[in-house]
Specification:
It is built from 5 helices and 7 strands. The protein has 161 residues and is of the alpha/beta class. The protein has a single domain, classed as Flavodoxin domain (Rossmann fold, 3-Layer(aba) Sandwich), CATH 3.40.50. Strands 1, 2, 3, 4, 5, 6 and 7 form a 7-stranded mixed β-sheet that branches. The longest helix has 21 residues. The protein is globular and about 35 Å long. The structure holds flavin mononucleotide.
């Protein structure tokens, strides 16, 4: 099963967290994962994916304008209807709006007809709530949580698809 992790990253933090999530997904079993910047999407791979993760830096307590533009104008090409989606965000500050960034992506993605999933608090600690979050590229705890988020997400995708 293919999973696409699609991120926007200017200074590398969100890209690095995407890679932690991908590492966790591979631990879930028979999964192929590709991390792709919004600037270099492998459209064929993405269209064949059963599940997607979107990651954005927090800009002004919301998703970045680049990610919003991507979802507005490009995401229709990914054929995501009925597929599984999750989100993550990075930020500089605790309380800086990362969860608002996540929720703003979720709102947009729902318009594309996706099924949103985060294991949240259902699998015990560490919780991922609406999606995993990291300050910059994450401390040790946040990096391990990002991996676990990936593993739990991929396990659910394998169960459903
Ligand atoms: C224009 C701009 C606005 C930002 N606004 C916020 C913010 O509201 N809250 C916050 O915690 N961090 C904010 N940041 C910091 C970024 O979210 C943070 O450094 C992020 O990890 C950058 O990701 P990247 O390295 O993948 O580009 C902002 C950064 C930029 C460039």
């Amino acid at each position: 099963m293919k999973i696409s992790i699609i991120y926007h990253s200017e200074s590398g933090n969100t890209e690095k967290v995407a890679q932690f999530i991908a590492k966790g997904m591979i631990n879930a079993g028979d999964v192929n994962v590709k991390c792709m910047s919004i600037d270099s999407i492998d459209l064929d791979y993405a269209k064949e994916s059963s599940a997607f993760i979107f990651g954005s830096p927090t800009y002004m307590a919301s998703m970045s304008w680049q990610m919003k533009k991507f979802i507005d104008t490009e995401s229709k090409k990914l054929n995501m209807e009925g597929k599984m989606c999750g989100v993550f965000a990075t930020a500089n500050y605790f309380g800086g709006g990362a969860e608002i960034a996540e929720l703003s992506m979720i709102g947009q993605l729902l318009v594309r007809g996706v099924l949103i999933y985060s294991a949240g608090a259902s699998k015990g600690a560490p919780y991922t709530h609406v999606g995993t979050v990291a300050i910059k590229d994450g401390n040790e705890f946040e990096q391990e949580r990002a991996e676990l988020f990936g593993k739990r997400f991929a396990e659910k995708a394998l169960e459903l698809f």
